[in-house]
Amino acid sequence: MKITVMTADEQIISLDVDPHESVENVKALLEVETRVPLQQQQLLYNGKEMRNSEKLSALGVKDEDLVMMVSGAAASSAAGNDLALNPDGSAVNPAALQQQLRQDSNMMAQLFQNDPEFAQALLGNDLNKLQDVLRERHRQRSELRRQQDEELALLHADPFDVEAQKKIEAAIRQKGIDENWAAALEHNPEAFARVVMLYVDMEVNGVPLKAFVDSGAQSTIISKSCAERCGLLRLLDQRYKGIAHGVGQSEILGRIHVASIKIGNIFYPCSFLVLDAPNMEFLFGLDMLRKHQCIIDLKDNVLRVGGGEVSVPFLQEKDIPSRFLDEERHAKQASSSGAPATTGTTDKSKTTMPSGSHSSGAANTPSNASKEADLEAKIAKLVELGFKREAAIQALKFFDGNEEQAAAYLFGG
Questions:
Q1: Which residues does the annotation mark as catalytic?
Q2: Region labeled Disordered — which residues (predicted)?
Q3: 3-class SS of residue 23
């Protein structure tokens, strides 16, 4: 495993060591690197002294952990060193630790690659956030250590102990899940991205709508409020009242037997159920998809109608009203009204778009003054790290104002 040793004179040393190596042997390696005699070295881990006879694994030292080294006269005051860590993983003096790590370009470059959240906390001015990140990393290390201890205990458990065998089975299953998750992150990262549902622009009785295209819904559905807005509620046949069952349930108010919908430049006859479903406006279901020989073409990202005589593009996320994408609102409305299965799957991903926004425009664009102030703040942070102002400006332009990427580029250069 690799550990990082920070010396009192701000030198950063990376060592490849065995987890079961003794502290004394680690000091011997450091003697070669630093020319500081073994007897004058004192190593600190999480603010506590590491004794020569102790093993790294017994002290809880893990891969990529940080160890402090003091020597000479500084050894007597090592416990109160500003760079030490508290038992909960937070820094005794977070400002001193932040300044120390900021000054090491190699360390910062490694952090940007391996732990960008920690690197960003070091670059920022919020010491409380830095302390929170340090505590979280300590908690993660402690949890990993606990899991490893449990695995070790299971390896030495009585093979005839039924409970122990159940735990071993659960551990093996969880390991398989974790490996599958890691493989997905590496080879199929898009699987973790939110999938935006399929919407197209349509007109119903002359009223423009954003229609949700769902081949998993048996019937085409319009909400009562939408039908009223389109002037179709007068055609509602209440003889078709009922209940739509599925993941939940919703009241079917009736049926509108025929009305014109406009897709592209062509009008088509359409019939739909009217539901009391406040979280859904208009859903183009399988019945009309079949009737009008529609093709959902995901390669070209279009809906083809009439066997291809009309093609309309699926809307981008920015063009879909935020109320259709708001997970919390959909969840609350579905639970209160009982959304039917015929409405298909609901997009369960959150959006940060403001309510009622359709596409980005001048109203949503920050003023030039605020842009310049934001750019100057980023430049100032990079200059504070020791880079020239011109280089900072060029890096920010190159990475479209992304401060993290610009810093990583400058550190790497």
A1: 214
A2: 328-370
A3: helix
